[in-house]
C-alpha cells in the first residue's frame, strides 16, 4: 500500500516529503558506500599513503603521487641524502604524503629533464644499469636494504622449504614463515658484522636477491642500496627517475595488489582455514534449516498447552549477550569432550529463538485450508511439512539461512575459545590473528584481508537477493 495516494502526489507538501525521503536514503547510502571505498583504497595503499584514509587512491590518477610512492618503496624514511634540495618538512613518509602540491612539483622537476631529452634518458638508463651491476658485485655486508615484509615469506620458504628446517637452522624459532622479520638486522649499520648466525647469512642473501631480481627484470634500481647514500646520491637519484619512467605503472600495480596476494596466501592457501570455514558454514546452515523449521512447525501446527511459555522461554535467551553464556558453554563442551571439534562450533548455534519465533509467525499465516486438503488426501504430517509448508516459506527460510551463514562465517570469538588447535581455526580466527599479531605493523595488508573475506558474504547476498527480498516484503504485507 502506497504511503501517498496518486491524487496527493501533486501537492507541494507531498513533493517536499518525497524529496526529503530520497535525500535521507541517499545520505544513508553515502554513509555505507564511503567507508567501503576507504577500505578498498586502504587495501591498495602502502606505508606512504595509508594514513590519508582517502576513498580513492590518488596514485591512480596523480602521476606525481605515483612517483613518490615508487621512491617510498626503496627507503624506510624520506632519503634526505639523495634529495637534499627537497622541502625541509619532508621527514617521514606520512608528512611527505600530506604535501600533495609539493609532491607534484617535486616529481615534475625530477622527471621532466629526462623525459624531454631522449639522448639524456638513454644515457641515464646505461648509467643506472651499470650502477645496479656494481651493487651485484659488491659485498652485501656493506650494503643497506629496505626490505618489503611481504617478500619474506616467499623468500625464506624457497630457501628452507619447511618451517621446521628454518627453525633448526635459526637461533630463534618461528611459528610460520609469515612471522619472519629482519628488523634488527636492517637497523644495523652497513659493514657491521652480525652474530654469524644462519639468520644473518639469510639477511645477506636477501640483499643480494633483491639486486639479482632487479637485474633479471630489467629494472634500474632495487631495494638494496649502497651503504653510504651521500656518496652515491646522484646515481640513486637518476636510477629512481629512470625506474619510474620505464616501469612506473608496473611497479605501482604490483605493489598495490601484493597486499592481496600475501593475504590470500595467508588465509586461503596455507593450512585448513578455508576448508574449515566451508565445512562449518555448510553444517551450520544445514542444521539451522533442519532444527528451526521443525521446531516452529510443531509450535504452529499443534495446539500445545504451553506454546506461549515455550516461545517466551526461547525469546528470553536473546536477553543474555554471548559473553555471558560463553563460559558455561565452554565448560559444558569440555565436560562432553567436544573441544577442538566441529561439533563445538556448530551445536551451540543450531537452534535460534528468534528464527523459530519468526518462522512460527510465518507458518501461522499460511491458509489452514491447505492442511485440511492435504489431510483429506491422506498426506502424512511429514509430507505436509515437506511438500506444502516448506515450498511456501522459501523466502523466510532464505533469510534464516543467510543469518546462519553470516554468524558461522564471521564469528571468531567462540571459535577461538573452543578450538585451541590452529588446525581447526576458521578464516575469521585467522583474520583476528592477522590483524592483532602477524600483520599488525602492516594495516594495509589487514584491510586487504577484510576486503577478501567480505567477498563470500557479498556473493551469497547477491545470489539470494530476490529470494531474501521476498522474505522481507511478504511478511510485512501479511
What's a concise summary of this model?
The chain is mostly helical and 478 residues long. Helix content is 67%, strand content 1%.
Structural features, described:
The chain has 478 residues and is mainly α. The protein has 2 domains: 64-255, no CATH class; 273-477, MetI-like (MetI-like fold, Orthogonal Bundle), CATH 1.10.3720. It is built from 22 helices and 2 strands. It has a two-stranded antiparallel ribbon. α11 crosses α15 (353-364). The longest helix is centred in the middle third of the chain and has 37 residues, at 233-269. It is elongated and about 95 Å long. The chain starts with 11 loop residues before the first helix and ends with a helix. The model has no long low-confidence stretch (mean pLDDT 86).
Strand percentage? under 5%
Helix content: 55-70%
Number of distinct helices? 22
Neighbour order of strands in the largest sheet: 1-2
Question: What shape does the CA trace take?
Answer: elongated
Order of helices and strands: HHHHHEHHHHEHHHHHHHHHHHHH
Q: Pick out the low-confidence regions.
A: none
State Rg: 31 Å
**Number of domain modules:** 2
Do you know the CATH architecture of the largest domain?
A: Orthogonal Bundle
Give the biggest beta sheet. 2 strands, antiparallel
Number of E-type strands: 2
The class by helix and strand makeup works out as mainly alpha
Amino acid at each position: 500500500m502506497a504511503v501517498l495516494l496518486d491524487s496527493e502526489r501533486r501537492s507541494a507538501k507531498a513533493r517536499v516529503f518525497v524529496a526529503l525521503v530520497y535525500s535521507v536514503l541517499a545520505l544513508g547510502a553515502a554513509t555505507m558506500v564511503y567507508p567501503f571505498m576507504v577500505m578498498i583504497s586502504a587495501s591498495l595503499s602502502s606505508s606512504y599513503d595509508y594514513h590519508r584514509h582517502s576513498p580513492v587512491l590518488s596514485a591512480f590518477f596523480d602521476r606525481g603521487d605515483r612517483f613518490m610512492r615508487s621512491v617510498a618503496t626503496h627507503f624506510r624514511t624520506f632519503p634526505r641524502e639523495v634529495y637534499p634540495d627537497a622541502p625541509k618538512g619532508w621527514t617521514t613518509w606520512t608528512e611527505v604524503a600530506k604535501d600533495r602540491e609539493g609532491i607534484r612539483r617535486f616529481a615534475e622537476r625530477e622527471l621532466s629533464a629526462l623525459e624531454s631529452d631522449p639522448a639524456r634518458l638513454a644515457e641515464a638508463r646505461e648509467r643506472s644499469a651499470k650502477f645496479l651491476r656494481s651493487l651485484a658485485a659488491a659485498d652485501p655486508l656493506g650494503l643497506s636494504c629496505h626490505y618489503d615484509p611481504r617478500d619474506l615469506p616467499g623468500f625464506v620458504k624457497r630457501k628452507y622449504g619447511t618451517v621446521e628446517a628454518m627453525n633448526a637452522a635459526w637461533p630463534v624459532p618461528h611459528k610460520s614463515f609469515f612471522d619472519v622479520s629482519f628488523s634488527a638486522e636492517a637497523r644495523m649499520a652497513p659493514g657491521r658484522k652480525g652474530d654469524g648466525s644462519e639468520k644473518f647469512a639469510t639477511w645477506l642473501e636477501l640483499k643480494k636477491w633483491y639486486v639479482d631480481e632487479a637485474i633479471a627484470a630489467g629494472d634500474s634500481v632495487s631495494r638494496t642500496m649502497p651503504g653510504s647514500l651521500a656518496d652515491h646520491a646522484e646515481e640513486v637519484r637518476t636510477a629512481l627517475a629512470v625506474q619510474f619512467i620505464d616501469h612506473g605503472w608496473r611497479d605501482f600495480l604490483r605493489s598495490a595488489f601484493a597486499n592481496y596476494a600475501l593475504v590470500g596466501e595467508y588465509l586461503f592457501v596455507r593450512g585448513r582455514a578455508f576448508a574449515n570455514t566451508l565445512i562449518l558454514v555448510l553444517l551450520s546452515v544445514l542444521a539451522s534449516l533442519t532444527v528451526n523449521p521443525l521446531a516452529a512447525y510443531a509450535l504452529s501446527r499443534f495446539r500445545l498447552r504451553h506454546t506461549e511459555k515455550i516461545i517466551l522461554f526461547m525469546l528470553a535467551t536473546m536477553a543474555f549477550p554471548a559473553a555471558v553464556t560463553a563460559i558455561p558453554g565452554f565448560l559444558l563442551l569440555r565436560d562432553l569432550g567436544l573441544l577442538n571439534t566441529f561439533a563445538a562450533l556448530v551445536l551451540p548455534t543450531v537452534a535460534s529463538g528468534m528464527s523459530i519465533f519468526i518462522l512460527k509467525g510465518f507458518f501461522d499465516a499460511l491458509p489452514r485450508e491447505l492442511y485440511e486438503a492435504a489431510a483429506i488426501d491422506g498426506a502424512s504430517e511429514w509430507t505436509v511439512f515437506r511438500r506444502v509448508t516448506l515450498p511456501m516459506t522459501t523466502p523466510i527460510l532464505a533469510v534464516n539461512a543467510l543469518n546462519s551463514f553470516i554468524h558461522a562465517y564471521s564469528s571468531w570469538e567462540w571459535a577461538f575459545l573452543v578450538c585451541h588447535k590452529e588446525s581447526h581455526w576458521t578464516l575469521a580466527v585467522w583474520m583476528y590473528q592477522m590483524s592483532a599479531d602477524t600483520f599488525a605493523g602492516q594495516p594495509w595488508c589487514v584491510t586487504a584481508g577484510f576486503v577478501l573475506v567480505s567477498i563470500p558474504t557479498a556473493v551469497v547476498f547477491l545470489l539470494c537477493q530476490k529470494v531474501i527480498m521476498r522474505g522481507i516484503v511478504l511478511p510485512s504485507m501479511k
